[in-house]
Amino acid sequence: MDGERTCYVASFNDKVTDDLLEELFTQVGPLKKIKVLKQKDSEIRFALVEFEDEESVQFAIETLDGIKLFNLPLTVKPRSKTKQEEIWKATRSERERRQNTNTPTTTPSSSYRNDRSQPAYSTNSYERKRDSRGFG
């Protein structure tokens, strides 16, 4: 596998298959090969996803890192000791800054109800008319 065109994928559920990973990563670039492996002396699985071009590596990381499959977020990173990893590390602080600015910092509006003892609606005129005629 060419390291410059390869992503490291980890933290995925046992239900995730080679075919599912192939389908997912095909969405971000043309694939050459996917290998799902196990760590030595462990049941922990990881995958190496090789693309046909280097540009797809960074796009895959930006697009798929953190995506949940079977309620477990994927970890998608460039293969270690590559130029792609250097680019990823250099842009990490910018990505984190962007993520922090996208996090809502506002508090709920004053109309937000913390008091659940009272109904969230007021009795409208229809209900009052209905009650006055002996219904309900």
From TrEMBL:
Q: Where is it localised?
A: Nucleus, Nucleoplasm
Would you name any one GO CC term? Answer: nucleoplasm
| Alphabetized UniProt keyword annotations | Nucleus, RNA-binding
An example Gene Ontology biological process: regulation of alternative mRNA splicing, via spliceosome
Its principal location?
A: nucleus
Q: What is this protein called?
A: RRM domain-containing protein
The segment(s) forming the RRM domain are 5-81
Answer yes or no on keyword ATP-binding.
Answer: no
Composition bias of kind Basic and acidic residues appears in 82-99, 126-136
**Comp. bias intervals (Low complexity):** 100-111
* Keyword RNA-binding recorded: yes
PANTHER family, alphabetized? RNA BINDING MOTIF RBM PROTEIN -RELATED (PTHR13798), RNA-BINDING PROTEIN 7-RELATED (PTHR13798:SF11)
Query: According to the UniProt record, where is the region Disordered?
Result: 79-136
Q: Which domain of life is it from?
A: Eukaryota
InterPro entries noted in UniProt: NEXT_complex_subunit, Nucleotide-bd_a/b_plait_sf, RBD_domain_sf, RRM_dom
Record-level Gene Ontology MF annotations: single-stranded RNA binding
